[in-house]
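Entry for the shared binder. Reason: the reviewer on the internal report wants the predicted structure included alongside the sequence.
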Amino acid sequence: MAAIAEAQAAKGPVMALDARWYTDPRVFELEKTQIFARTWQFACHQSRLGKAGDFFSFKIGQTGLFLVRDRAGDIRCFHNVCRHRAHELVEGSGSRPFIVCPYHGWRYDLDGSLKSAPGEDRVPGFDRSCIRLREVRIEMFCGFVFVNLDDDAEPMAAWYPGAEEEMRAFLPGVDTLRPVAEIPVVEACNWKVSVENYSECYHCKLRHPTFASGVIDPESYDVSPQGHCLRHTTRSAQSEKMTYAIDTPNPHAREYSSWFLWPTISFQVYPGSVLNTYLWRATDHRQVTVTRGWYTPEGVASEQVDLLAQQDLETTVAEDILIVESVQRGLESGSYEPGPLVIDPEGGVMSEHSIAAIYGWLQEALGEDLPS
């Protein structure tokens, strides 16, 4: 915050980015290699991998990956590519004792080592001990599995300092939580438009009346950059205005807190200690799927969570779709000229300092000069 305020004082207001950051497909191609392939990406909750042999496949950009729990109980991540002739090894999720390629039957153990290949005994010099699936780094964050395609990337603790400790303190029962619902919503906009919209509440009172009056207190809303994390904090709405009941002994039950982990995942703890996640998966430069995940202790159905998820879908989500798709149309209109961000040196709900932080991360990854 202080650095942004000093820059404003010295150079004038921070300006919004040029439209081509959001409309040029070449920028998106650069982001796939310079951002998505070099940052920590959420894969799934560890509860999807309960026993040895359980697997879950997913993609980062065009890179196919899968998680599997091995016989020692550890979760591993591998490229979803057979070492023989590149056929994909698994689809979706499930459980199996070995990973067997459906093309020619090469069989891998759950640690990625090749166990057998039909006809290998007839090939002079064939040494299966030298062949194993290509592995990818993983880390755990409050029971959520993250992967990074960059072997040299710093650990999550360096990227998001203090975030896991804060979330565990705010939500002491986080280790008991399991997913109960995943709601994907397609938005016709660049992924950054959607992320930026999520990352400020300057628009909340005007565009999110239910959220701003019946869930949180916008006057106490603030966003604080922490490393490559944006920490959102606020109080809940006044008791008589809450749109759902709060019944939990958690001392933070009357607060809202969110941890956005750059670039594509955020964890929200709603008043009442309800955990929700937002996951952004870009399809191309003008479409993104945003999946809301909802969690309860042991994954037990909850009427409160069902009602909150439905309310969120019908109000905040529906309202945000109108916003981000309108912004995208404006960016593509050919008439947009970037304006100044509204940045209050003291922060608060009416400040866009979080957007300036995102701009800094983008320029850190892509540089100042985009494809011309």
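Summary line for the report: The CA atoms of residues 31 and 366 lie 7 Å apart.
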